Amino acid sequence: MCVAIADSRHLVHFFSFFTIESNLLAIVVLLIGGAVNPRGARWAWVRGAATLYMVITGIVYAALLANVEVGLTAPWVDSAMHQVTPAVLLADWIFFPPWPRAAYSKALGWLAFPLAYFAYSLIRGAAVDWYPYPFIDPRQSGGYGRVAVFAVVLAVVFALLALAVSAIGVARSRRR
């Protein structure tokens, strides 16, 4: 019984990484996009969200986690999840843009998931004494005040990234 509880806790830990969640969404988007190539505003929104989340994954990894042990045992997995998949999603967005017109306000809606993820990570981390990333862990980052400041900075950066991803889609759609 204890082994099952420990295993389920590790499974929840695994799926509590933004990297894992964003890569799963990216895989779904690439599979559906490749298989049926859906059109429409909702699909464009989902593609944009996946692209933003993968860009966030790549940038946060490069800026904050490249020299931190993230629990991946194979270097190629680390590279695929933090570098290759973000580049693939961004290239997909650039070369096959979905936005027929400006959608900047809709792009800001993409921020709902990262903000909810951050809240989940803080609440769950306090409850189970485990945080997925050192910059979210108040024990490692200097307390909740510093985590809050960091969260505000990240939220602003993520909003700017959302607007940039949307702008790329709009500009590329107009060229096509």
Structure summarized in a few sentences:
The protein is 77% helix and 0% strand. The protein is mostly helical.
Radius of gyration, in angstroms, nearest whole number? 17 Å
Write the element-wise H/E pattern from the N-terminal end onward: HHHHHHHH
Q: How far apart are the termini?
A: 58 Å
- Count of runs of 4 or more consecutive helical residues: 8
| β-strand amount | under 5%
Average pLDDT reading: 87
Major beta sheet, specifics? none
Portion of residues within helices: over 70%
Q: What structural category characterises the helix and strand content?
A: mainly alpha
Low-pLDDT runs of 5+ residues are 1-6
In total, the number of strands is 0
Indicate the overall shape: globular
Q: What is the number of domains?
A: 1
Overview of this protein structure:
The chain has helices at about 1-15, 20-35, 40-65, 75-95, 105-110, 110-130, 140, 145-175. It has one domain (about 1-175). The radius of gyration is 17 Å and the shape is globular. Helix 2 (about 20-35) packs antiparallel against helix 3. The protein is built from 8 helices and no strands. Residues about 1-5 have low confidence and may be disordered. The longest helix has about 30 residues, at about 145-175. It has about 180 residues and is an all-alpha fold.
Map the helices and strands.
Elements: H1 2-14, H2 18-36, H3 41-65, H4 75-95, H5 104-108, H6 112-128, H7 138-141, H8 144-175
Helix pairs in contact: 2-3, 2-4, 3-4, 3-8, 4-8
List keywords for this structure.
176 residues; disordered N terminus; single chain; globular; 8 helices
